[in-house]
Amino acid sequence: xxxxxxxxxxxxxxxxxxxxxxxxxxxxxxxxxxxxxxxxxxxxxxxxxxxxxxxxxxxxxxxxxxxxxxxxxxxxxxxxxxxxxxxxxxxxxxxxxxxxxxxxxxxxxxxxxxxxxxxxxxxxxxxxxxxxxxxxxxxxxxxxxxxxxxxxxxxxxxxxxxxxxxxxxxxxxxxxxxxxxxxxxxxxxxxxxxxxxxxxxxxxxxxxxxxxxxxxxxxxxxxxxxxxxxxxxxxxxxxxxxxxxxxxxxxxxxxxxxxxxxxxxxxxxxxxxxxxxxxxxxxxxxxxxxxxxxxxxxxxxxxxxxxxxxxxxxxxxxxxxxxxxxxxxxxxxxxx
Length: 336
Ligand SMILES: Cc1cc2nc3c(=O)[nH]c(=O)nc-3n(C[C@H](O)[C@H](O)[C@H](O)COP(=O)(O)OP(=O)(O)OC[C@H]3O[C@@H](n4cnc5c(N)ncnc54)[C@H](O)[C@@H]3O)c2cc1C
Hints:
Elements: E1 7-12, E2 15-16, E3 19-20, H1 22-37, E4 42-48, H2 55-60, E5 65-70, H3 79-93, E6 95-101, H4 104-116, E7 121-122, E8 127-130, E9 138-144, E10 149-153, E11 161-165, E12 182-185, H5 192-195, E13 218-222, H6 229-242, E14 245-248, H7 250-254, E15 275-279, H8 285-291, E16 296-301, E17 314-317, H9 320-335
Parallel strand pairs: 1-4, 1-6, 4-5, 5-12, 6-11, 7-11, 13-14, 13-15, 15-16, 16-17
Antiparallel strand pairs: 2-3, 8-9, 9-10
Helix pairs in contact: 3-4, 6-9
């Protein structure tokens, strides 16, 4: 493999039912930074049926080029045709770096593409950078050994250098509707025999009753210090006043007090709200990994040495069971 032939940062622009997923735009923001460090282009790969109109949104968020593979076989996500389309792009255009969102689709697609192209994949990277020495290496960092160690991974001998990144970890750029880019329609010859092995019989959509905490602007989050459901009712009242949602540490999920979909952290969701209120959460590294990029962090803890205070912008030392209702009352009275 002649590594010098490989260039540019490619992003899988995941769409579902013709709607671009937020993570695709977040990855374009990071790809822009990586490409600029190497004087390269950002290329979005847009796969689907009748998806071309989405290309301008990708350009507005940082793509220089959008490669569109428009085909009936790509209407709904299936591993084989999507893998074939991306493998075709890899063979034809030789990307240096490829980023994929760690969604259910991305977690299926990424490993398959990397195996088929005999290259490496770093799953769930939390940091991506180009080294500022002469080597200009692409460094992918992710938690390892239960979050006790941050491992920086290089893909030295093969291309593309692939990574999946969870939604909410990277930041999208402000859209610039005037940005110009090139839209390239890519024609892929699919191996219909291989594709026919798996058929999509029916799509059953789960009713969306689960709140996506990674979309919330304000999170009032509770840990073991909250204790039980009655404790969380106090947090809910405060969240309601702030127009936010309640989230949780893993301790309260394991205790059966909160549902897993509201867990923040390494094995839960990564969140980046405008305000994160950590109530009765000690600040274990696995919890911090999911929330430390929040814009403003307020921590309430009765232990002034709790590690959560090291990432908090504002710390309140005291009993959350007294402080949270007081805050709620104060907010209520301010609105009168
Ligand atoms: C592989 C692995 C993955 C993990 N993934 C996650 C993850 O995704 N998310 C996660 O959260 N954890 C995760 N953990 C668990 C993590 O290590 C911690 O055990 C967990 O975060 C602790 O939760 P906590 O802060 O609620 O509880 P504790 O650590 O028990 O802290 C409770 C805090 O509440 C304070 N407190 C008690 N009473 C009050 C009160 N009345 N008022 C104010 N403060 C009070 C205490 O001072 C203490 O600081 C993971 C662990 C492993 C090994």
